[in-house]
Amino acid sequence: MPIRIPENLPAQNVLTQENIFVMDLARAGEQDIRPMEVGILNLMPNKIETEIQILRLLSNTPLQINIDLIRIDDQVPKNTPQSHMDDFYQPFSQIKAKQYDGLIITGAPLGFKAYEDVTYWTQIQEIFDWAQINVQSTLYLCWAAHAAMYHFHGVVRDIRPTKLSGIFEHAVLAPTNELMRGFDPYFFAPHSRFGNIPEAVYAKTPGIEVLAAGSECGAYICATTDKRQVFVTGHPEYDADTLLQEYIRDSAQSSETAIPVNYFKADDPSQEILVRWRSHGTLLYTNWLNYYVYQVTPYDLTTLPKHSYSI
User: Fold this and answer.
1) In this entry, which stretches build a coiled coil (predicted)?
2) Residue 151 within a domain
3) Residue 292 has what DSSP assignment?
4) Residue 235 among the catalytic residues
């Protein structure tokens, strides 16, 4: 089944060329089912690239999904045309009266900033709390995962002395959890961050289970036992060359930039990229949509259970 995205969104041409079924609003209206309602709060600088990456992972499901692209009010994009934001994104103030089956909050390049120093921290806190009332399950990625742990549980992340960048091996720690269904016992996924929360901190936080972790990168996938919150500390959505582009960008700023680990063949930037994470990234999103959203969300979203995890 397709994902329904705004008409003329640049991602549509890319996904169509990849033989991914997308449809516009008019055609979606002819479908006699209740589609899943999924919002994407995109905090990444290059929003068009991130849209394509996430929409690609959401597409591998038999469910019809309506997508809303959401932005924080009054935030001016630095790397995305304002016209794109005006045409395809809805300010949070305009959708806050709506309920969603699922919400994805992306990472953001804010690794060194204290949360309170983030210009839109107050708005993010409002969205976090709003989601606990109006969303069945929220998927927090990278920076958003750490920010949610701070907001809801008072957990302050550590700042690593060097950036965690590369493709790391993870072990499935909870093989019977539906989010891990179909995963190999060991799998790879990209990370790109300075922030870190020790695995033991997640494990001792009430109501949270560590589902997958790596010896080098620590906790990777954690979730609340009620399936309402999923914390993913890496970037399963990354394209093959995303870490390469980050490495080129960072190298231009510092000659001491480390080569992403396990990313290039023989860890040599002149050699090919080893792509080893796509299947598990797709499976993670498919399982989230099926078992954490579709299987448990009410038909009438106005009857969503109300939860609050704030400290």
Assistant:
1) none
2) yes
3) I
4) yes
pLDDT tier at 266, thresholds 50, 70, 90: very high
Range of the domain at 226: 3-161+171-238+279-303
- The response to whether 276 counts as a known ligand-binding position is no
Q: Exposed/middle/buried for 97, CB within 10 Å: 0-12, 13-18, 19+?
A: exposed
Q: 32-68 pLDDT, tens per residue?
A: 467 899 999 999 988 999 999 999 999 888 778 999 9
Question: Would you list the DSSP string of 112-166?
Answer: TS-GGGSTTHHHHHHHHHHHHHHEEEEEEETHHHHHHHHHHH-PPPEEEEEEEEE
Count of domains observed in the chain: 1
Task: Answer yes or no: is 192 a known binding residue.
Answer: yes
Q: Is-contact 211 191, C-beta < 8 A?
A: no
* Contact criterion met (CB below 8 Å) for 283 and 182: yes
CATH number at residue 294: 3.40.50.880
Does any domain span residue 33?
yes
Q: Residue 38 forms beta bridges with which residues?
A: 67, 102
Residue given tokens 């001491």 in the structure block: 256
Out of 142, 146, 170, 217, pick the active-site residue. Answer: 142
CB 228 within 8 A of CB 139: no
Tell me: the pLDDT tens digits for 18-35? 766 565 555 544 444 678
Q: What is the pLDDT of residues 98-152, one digit of tens each?
A: 999 999 999 998 878 999 999 999 999 999 999 999 999 999 999 999 999 999 9
Whole-angstrom Cα distance, residue 139 to residue 157? 18
Catalytic: which of 146, 170, 191, 235? 235
To the query of whether residue 142 is one of the catalytic residues in this protein, the response is: yes
pTM for this predicted structure: 0.88
Is residue 259 domain-resident? no
